[in-house]
Amino acid sequence: MTANTPFIEALRRIEVPGWLASERGAALDRFLATGMPSARLEDWKHTSLAALERRVWHSSTSVAGEAVCPDIASYPGHALVFQNGQLHCHGIYLANQIAGTLLDLANTQAVHQYLGQVADDTALANLNLALWQDGAHVYVPAGDHITLPIFTLFGAAEAEAMLYPRTLAVLEHGAEAILVEHFLGQTGQPYWQNAVTEIVLEDGAHLTHLKVIEEGAAATHTSLTAVRLGRDSEYRALHIGLDGALARHEIRVHMAGPGATTRIDAFDLADGHRHADLHLRINHRAPSGTSRVTYRGLAKGRGRAVFDGHVVVDRAAPKIDARQSCRGLLLSPQAEIDAMPRLEIYADDVKCGHGASIGNLDREALFYLQSRGIDLALARQLLMQGFANEALGLLDHTHLRNWLMPRLIAAMARRTLMEPTP
Fold first, then answer.
1. Per the domain annotation, does 157 fall within a domain?
2. Which range marks the domain in which residue 249 is found?
3. How far is residue 29's CA from residue 364's CA, in Å, rounded to a whole number?
4. What per-residue confidence (pLDDT) applies to 66?
């Protein structure tokens, strides 16, 4: 069996609407022509997928029998739950096409117009386009404000499975919504989730987008979030990376309309041998845009966190205000954090800046807390929570702090309390 056989066989088994069949075949051909991205590519020099190519993967064909629907009540909003690539259950459900599945809504205008058109032509994006089985479609008509968050949960419980979650979100003129993507591992065995999210914000639209990665301990997570912004639109995003042996999230933001605003906050926790890579590119293509990036990375054991933030200001985009803040916290001598904020500016009359720093827990702060009767373990936990909290401001805007913080605190407590300070 050749290395390409699992992908070809997976495509043959997928049933899709007729208009998608040719697009899937063409996308798979493009992937097979290029193969997996390798360290020879500049964008991939810090992350290797060689381990994926050494395994024999299969495409999931049914919901695993041991999978159970999670506690829907724990998701404070509308919820769509996908298990091993297929819709499994749902909570509060928006049946008027605001939130539904891609397969159910495949023949709607928004899907026809935008599916596969926002994401860049990269190898893993092509593989997802070829092999996704189902996914989430969020469509908010002009002027509508959806106050409750829309949750999409992508669970994985099947060993050696390759899964391709897909999300398409389209917000028309002046629409507002909150979208939360939650990737949750339910097995300690290896599997691979290769996700693509495409987001279109028309003029004046506002989207707050949270992505929480809690994959299984042996899982690989690769994903692309591609966003296109119209005039005076606003995209606010929060990336939280907590689990998975290897997780690489690529965010590409195309600020196509004048006056567009982007805010991206991120926190990655890399422990043990975990590899966490956040790869960010913001393209300012129109004047008077604003972008803000705040990254916080925490690494322990032999964990490695990578932040590659690249902001490009085109010649046709004067009066841009773009800033990046990147800080890393090392909790062991073997841990590694690579911080690479970059600016590429071709226009005049701009305000752009970036900064990066990497260090250890402040010993004086630890001593101060201990002198006030707080034991060392709790003092370390408090300092790390304060460090992470610098990138979590969107939780207050979305009223989701009570939902997310227990997960984050539990992950940090499990992994960091016993690690000696370098």
1. yes
2. 50-93+134-416
3. 58
4. 46
* Number of other residues whose CB lies within 10 A of the CB of residue 45: 12
d(CA 174, CA 145): 8
354 found inside a domain: yes
Mean pLDDT confidence for 413-418: 55
> Cα 17–18–22 angle (5° rounding)?
115
The residue-averaged pLDDT of 285-302 equals 95
Mean pLDDT of the chain: 88
Across 137-146, average pLDDT: 93
Pairing of strands 78-83, 86-90: antiparallel
**Is 80 exceeded by the pLDDT of residue 16?**
no
Coil/strand/helix, residue 363:
helix
pLDDT surpasses 60 at 62: no
In a domain, 406, yes or no: yes
Number of domains into which the chain is organized? 1
Q: How crowded is residue 203: how many other Cβ atoms within 10 Å of its Cβ? A: 17
* Closest among 331, 283, 325 to 305, alpha carbons compared: 331
Nearest residue to 28 (alpha-carbon basis) of 44, 6, 45: 6
Residues 177/236, Cβ–Cβ less than 8 Å: no
Instruction: Please give the Cα distance from 255 to 20 (Å, whole number).
Output: 28
In a domain, 118, yes or no: no
Using 50, 70 and 90 to split pLDDT, how confident is the model at 417?
A: very low
- Identify whether the C-beta of residue 251 lies closer than 8 Å to the C-beta of residue 222: no
Alpha-carbon span 163 to 60, nearest angstrom: 7
pTM over 0.90: yes
Question: Could you tell me the strand order of the sheet in which 290-299 lies?
Answer: 86-90, 78-83, 150-156, 176-185, 206-214, 234-243, 261-270, 290-299, 321-330, 351-359
Q: Which of 280, 55, 68 is nearest to 161 (CA)?
A: 55
Can you tell me the distance from the alpha carbon of 180 to that of 212, in angstroms, rounded to the nearest whole number?
Answer: 8
Chain segment 251-269, per-residue pLDDT in tens? 999 999 999 999 999 999 9
